[in-house]
Specification:
With 208 residues, the chain is α/β, with parallel strands linked by helices. The protein contains 7 helices and 5 strands, in the order βαβααβααβαβα. β4 (146-150), α6 and β5 form a beta-alpha-beta unit. The longest helix has 19 residues, at 72-90.
Length: 208
């Protein structure tokens, strides 16, 4: 497929060594944003919003148009720029989380990412049967210390951008297959809001 000139985009990930990054992936309307917000509040750490939603909502509001192939690389760059900016912000986080202590001289610095370039790559292949080479290379090169795949156990909520309420199970299975194909270790996360946070806190505490 034709698309934007990849040389115009910088998709390099910059993560300070002190920052532990968690990527939350999954089908639409499965609680990714809610989980990131809840974890951010629990750990008093920043979280990275899904840039694609901001970008496409603005496009919808101004043009009543949806995502096209030419939007993929601009979205990817916006996402990684936001992630890199907030990763730097995370290094300044000195507040102990609720599982830490005031005496902790080296509190863990977390960054919770509501999606990643891997998710954008998966959606590109799902909808277009292809993905820009630059996006694929970046998505596979980027590293996260913990990858979570949200279960399809939350109600689907309609909005201007969501379009596949009956494909969430199939989409979730596709995410799992792509993670496995590319040797990306991940954990499934489900349950209500409190259960999800409790489970992630338990996992992160074990990884400290």
């Amino acid at each position: 497929m034709n698309g934007n000139d990849a040389t115009a985009f910088n998709l390099t990930q910059h993560t300070p060594k002190s920052v532990f990054k968690v990527a939350v992936l999954g089908a639409e309307s499965t609680g990714k944003t809610t989980l990131c917000r809840d974890l951010s509040a629990h750990f008093r750490s920043p979280w990275v919003p899904e840039y694609m939603r901001t970008y496409l909502q603005a496009k919808w509001d101004s043009e009543q148009a949806t995502c096209t192939w030419d939007d993929l690389l601009p979205i990817a760059q916006g996402q990684i720029e936001l992630e890199n900016e907030l990763a730097q912000q995370a290094t300044k986080n000195t507040q102990p989380s609720s599982i830490g202590s005031e005496q902790d001289s080296n509190p863990k610095k977390y960054l919770f990412c509501d999606t990643s370039l891997f998710e954008l790559m998966v959606y590109s292949n799902w909808y277009y049967g292809d993905c820009p080479e630059a996006l694929t290379k970046a998505a596979l090169a980027h590293h996260y210390d913990l990858i979570l795949l949200t279960e399809v156990d939350t109600p689907w909520v309609a909005d201007d951008l969501r379009d596949a309420p009956h494909e969430r199970e199939e989409m979730s299975a596709y995410f799992a297959s792509q993670l496995e194909t590319h040797n990306k270790t991940f954990r499934r996360i489900g349950g209500d809001r409190n259960e999800r946070v409790r489970q992630v806190v338990e996992w992160l505490e074990a990884l400290r």
